[in-house]
Amino acid sequence: MSYPVRAARQRIEDEHAAVVAGIDHCADQVAAPWDTARTTDPSRVADSLGSALETTGLLERLTVVLADAVDATGHDLQARPVPGPPYVVVTSRGPVLRATIEPGRLVIRFDVFEVVRDPGPAYHRLDGIAVDVALE
């Protein structure tokens, strides 16, 4: 793990635990009405999660998380992030934050759903949230 990745991850853990917990809570709300432990509709997952994040104000707060993570790397954002593409995208697995910095593209994933391929594809709620930070 490179220094920028480690610094960004540490900043998220230290300063944005409430946002991470909020994403986890929103994912629980999305999965609660499912008849089974999974759904086969990726847009249902992404759209419902996006709506929940927007309603709670977390979608806007994710831009702050991104800016703060970039700051932790010692680099600057080229523009102020907005709660939409290309900076913040809500996928069927969870929110993804992206920023281009000097060494490459910083990508932060908050995975709350996983794709189950057999007999799938289907989307299953993870037990908790997996935060992945990468420099691509």
Describe this entry's structure for a reader.
This is DUF7988 domain-containing protein. The chain is α+β, with helices and mostly antiparallel strands. It has one domain. Helices cover 43% and strands 29% of the residues. It is built from four helices and five strands; from the N terminus they run H-H-E-H-H-E-E-E-E.
Morphology call: elongated
Count of helix runs: 4
Enumerate the spans where pLDDT stays under 50 for 5 or more consecutive residues: none
Please summarize the sheet with the most strands: 5 strands, antiparallel
Tell me what portion of residues adopts beta-strand conformation: 25-35%
Given helix and strand content, the structural type is alpha+beta
Tell me the total number of β-strands: 5
The helix content is 40-55%
Strands of the biggest beta sheet: in what spatial order? 1-5-4-3-2
What's the structural domain tally? 1
- Average predicted confidence as pLDDT: 93
CA gyration radius, whole angstroms: 15 Å
> Whole-Å distance between the termini?
12 Å
> What order do the helices and strands follow?
HHEHHEEEE
Provide a short characterization of the protein structure:
The chain is 43% helix and 29% strand.
Map the helices and strands.
Blueprint: H1 3-15, H2 17-31, E1 38-39, H3 42-56, H4 58-73, E2 88-90, E3 95-101, E4 104-116, E5 122-135
Antiparallel strand pairs: 1-5, 2-3, 3-4, 4-5
Pfam families: DUF7988 (PF25950)
InterPro entries: DUF7988
Protein name: DUF7988 domain-containing protein
